[in-house]
Amino acid sequence: MEVNYMNKDLFWRKRATPMTSESFLRMRQACNIVYSIVKKGGSVLFVSSGSAPSKKIEEISKRCNQSFVTERWIGGILTNSAQISKNIIRLKSTKKEDLNFFKSDFKSDLKYRGLRDPCPSLIILFGVEEKPLREAYKKGIPIIALLLDKEETKISSITYPILSSWTNLFLEELHYAFLQGH
């Protein structure tokens, strides 16, 4: 397992000790939330911004059999789920005679490739992106966000902010919570 450590100078400051212990407590709380949602049969949507390791997020979400968005966020994924569902079905039922639209379908495939359920019970956000935050707030979907900056934790639409840069460790813990919930 690969661990992503925070800045080296943070560990030398006494102020950083409560922050790291608080991060671990919040990670444990997030894993408990994921466990309870999966136990009830709910679905989770993983969303990563450009700074997060999107390949690892994609790998973990596929292992957990959950939806993910690692490319650009498409407006309306949560608020216009009927149209998004139609687009996903259209992409999956491509026929041989539709091959002349290959280029446009290839771009659409990149956008929609990780989406399975456009109405998740929980969103796990890596970094801060305004569009998914706004849509989730409108739909009342709770958000667990792994944040790198202390100021980002003050965003009111994030239900469970976690201040940490241990993305890989967090993903492995989430995967373990998914396995326990199934």
UniProtKB/TrEMBL annotation:
<dbReference type="InterPro" id="IPR023591">
    <property type="entry name" value="Ribosomal_uS2_flav_dom_sf"/>
</dbReference>
<dbReference type="GO" id="GO:0006412">
    <property type="term" value="P:translation"/>
</dbReference>
<dbReference type="GO" id="GO:0005763">
    <property type="term" value="C:mitochondrial small ribosomal subunit"/>
</dbReference>
<dbReference type="GO" id="GO:0003735">
    <property type="term" value="F:structural constituent of ribosome"/>
</dbReference>
<comment type="similarity">
    <text>Belongs to the universal ribosomal protein uS2 family.</text>
</comment>
<dbReference type="InterPro" id="IPR001865">
    <property type="entry name" value="Ribosomal_uS2"/>
</dbReference>
<keyword id="KW-0687">Ribonucleoprotein</keyword>
<dbReference type="Pfam" id="PF00318">
    <property type="entry name" value="Ribosomal_S2"/>
</dbReference>
<protein>
    <recommendedName>
        <fullName>Small ribosomal subunit protein uS2c</fullName>
    </recommendedName>
</protein>
<keyword id="KW-0496">Mitochondrion</keyword>
<keyword id="KW-0689">Ribosomal protein</keyword>
<dbReference type="InterPro" id="IPR005706">
    <property type="entry name" value="Ribosomal_uS2_bac/mit/plastid"/>
</dbReference>
